[in-house]
Amino acid sequence: MTAPRYVYAIGRAVDPTDLAGLVGIDGAEVHRISHRDLVAVVSVAPADEAALRSRLERLDELAVLAEAHHAVVALIATQTVVVPFRLATIYRDEDRVREVLRQRYEEFEALLDRLAGTVEIGIKLYVEDRQPAPAAPSTSGRAYLQQLSQRHRRRDEKWQHAAAAVERVDTALGAYAIDRSRHRPQAAQLSGAAGDNVLNAAYLVPAGRLIEFTDLAQRLARDEPALRVEVTGPWAPYSFTESDHGDRP
Amino acid sequence: MTNALGERNVALIDILDRLLEGGVVLTGDLTLAIADVDLVRISLRALICSVEADREGTTGTGGRP
């Protein structure tokens, strides 16, 4: 088996029957590569490296690749604990994947132990700007400038207020979670969401407390009129795969 | 095109947050994993910046101080 392999995730009790018929990137069949109790979930990688590289740089193609990767990880994560891989990790052949499992055995075992029985929940907080822009210059230019400066002052106050509210929500959720992690806030033009995304966070939560946690998030947001909350997930623990010896930048 | 990211069942933008910023990062044999995905991040960032610049251009004097 000399074809290059694309790695989606690593797990332990990955049942081969769960993978039957499952396809990944470019419709390639998903299969397992094992070393001791570790299982890498892989498929034969696209042969043309240069083509794949350029596909990763086009948003429409990137979307197709990301969704295929995510679908495989999401399915396995419903069955067993997994350590998801970042998009586009490819090894020369099956033996190289086995070698990686062998070399990083302790690290993967530790991560799997830490992530077992947990889920990742995404929490996004938004501030909605409901203030209309001042109308066209009114009676005088001076009045218009005053209007603008008032509006800016109100907006500054609103942002300070929102920042404090975000801290309160994040602290309360963080106290409830095993771990937390922050992503960059999302641009409204990309997400299509209303308002400014002021917190884009992920929390690692015991699977049994998932409902409790999302309820808490909704309740906290209700107490903060400045904020709107959006809950996503449960996700495989993508945002919590750092280990002490990993070479994550 | 840009709005489509937020309109799927699981929003693509949330998947990309995780697949481009999260997950185990190991150097694959074809070294796509680190260097090139960072390129993707850079180009996405460029895209976001260009959209934001557009917005500021169209809202005129309403920018943040």
Structure in words:
The complex is a heterodimer of chains A (249) and B (65). Chain A has eight helices and nine strands. By secondary structure, chain A is of the alpha+beta class. Chain A folds into two domains: 111 residues; 123 residues, Alpha-Beta Plaits (2-Layer Sandwich), CATH 3.30.70. In chain A, a hairpin with a 2-residue loop joins strand 2 and strand 3. In chain A, helix 6 runs antiparallel to helix 8. Chain B is 58% helix and 0% strand. Chain B contains two helices and no strands. Classes of the chains: A alpha+beta (249), B mainly alpha (65). At the A-B interface, helix 2, helix 3, strand 5, helix 6 and helix 7 of A face helix 1 and helix 2 of B.
Give the proportion of residues in helices of chain B. Answer: 55-70%
Question: Total domains of chain A, how many?
Answer: 2
* CATH architecture designation of the largest domain in chain A: 2-Layer Sandwich
Q: What structural class is derived from the secondary structure elements of chain A? A: alpha+beta
End-to-end separation of chain B in angstroms reads 30 Å
Strands of chain A, count:
9
| Outline of chain B | elongated
Count of separate DSSP helical elements of chain B: 2
Summed up:
Chain A is α+β, with helices and mostly antiparallel strands. Chain A has helices spanning 16-19, 49-56, 59-77, 94-103, 105-115, 141-176, 188-191, 210-222, and strands at 5-11, 30-35, 38-44, 82-84, 90-91, 118-127, 179-182, 196-206, 227-235. Chain B is mainly alpha-helical and 65 residues long.
